[in-house]
What does this fold into?
Amino acid sequence: MSSMDGMRSFVRGVLASALAFVATVASATLSIDNFQAADLVRYPVVILRGMAQGPEMAVGTSWPAAIRFPVVNHRYTAIVELKPGANMLLLHSGSESLKFRLDYRPMTGPYKVATVFVMSSDGTERYDSSIPNDRFAIRDKLNVAMKLLQSFTADAMQRAGYGRKTFALDFDDQGRVKVQFLRSPNTTAELQSLDPNSIFNHICGVLNNAFKGDVVKCCGLLGFAAFDPATKKNLGHIALGGGSQALFGAGSMQYWPATFKALPKVFQDASFVDGAKAFEDSGNRHTVWANVSTAYGAMLHELGHTFGLPHSPDRFSIMSRGFDYFSRSLTTVEAPLPDSKTPVAFGPEELAKWDPFFAARLASTAWFQPDGDKGAEFESKDKPTVRFDGDDVIVEAPYGIRVVGAESETVPAWFAEYKEENPPKQAKYSRKEIRGKMQDTKSTYRIVVVDAHGLQADIEDKVGE
It folds into this structure.
């Protein structure tokens, strides 16, 4: 071979290597950035974030099951449902494809959130709807909704630094959310005539009769909530939570997606919802997507109360009106409002979230332990205590102190964590110093302690005492 042929061969080799390198770099632009390959998750629907080059991306455990999501500025947010065991995710965007493994092992602990659809004595398995030929796919819609509440919580806990902890749901042998249908002894008219607190107390009684014990919390959807065209009011609608019950009116359920494939379209649906003609509860945003976002967020907000969380002063907290922003964790940009055709961009700091103090508390609660305590209820219930002794705040916890903090609905919380394997069982704090840390010495606030079993105690510090 001549020297010229050798040079040509060398150049071709260099070019081939360069092209192979470019191809490798190009293929690397399709990515999943919030998981590592073969990560183990304990819940079935995961939220993915990453880079992509095409105008949209598709992801699924098979191509027929793949769901398409928009790509904005080369970023995407997507969801995919996993089956127990190893899952090979297939991603595609533009000319690029990617395979990515995630593993799913269902939770085994006894502490669960039950999903309930509550009807009146004369009601049927329907919700208020103005959609012609609505199929009233209640089980399908709640399967999607509850899994999204679960995955949002895991994603938000991960962002808060506590790993992908979340609550367990009750699934059937097909991996679908079990939906239980219960009836109130009262008629629709009787229930719709009650004030919100009376509805809550009455339905809590119905649920308490059906669910015994202290390892179940209920997310109850009220099928008798409806829009009244005569008064132009939403009747029977509440959003209240506490104890073991989180209740929310099902009046906006007509807009909810019945499949995960429908989710991207729903969260981009800026169709106007006229509150003078139909059920509307969206934080005054009057669109289909906003009604769904607020409904999901408000359901989670009320569940937060069952986990012992109060309201928050943080505008992006799930425990404030931050629940309106639930959809932002499942989209890349927020869909337009009725008076605008422009989608709304937002940064990671503008996602709905659990406050840092709330996330710290949830991380220890029994409902956020994927396998419970040795697969059973905690063996004892020796709750922690907190008391005042002059300026001293005395905290005692037989199982060890995990979190101590002070909270108010007007200023950010202060808290301290004990993450060691064997946290202290006693601690003393200065009341005066805590007030100083709260940045507002004129307001009454609560001091809260959570132990290593997730048990909680609190005391009010009233200004002037």
About this structure: The longest strand covers residues 85-93. The chain has three domains: 39-104, 112-306+320-353, 382-461.
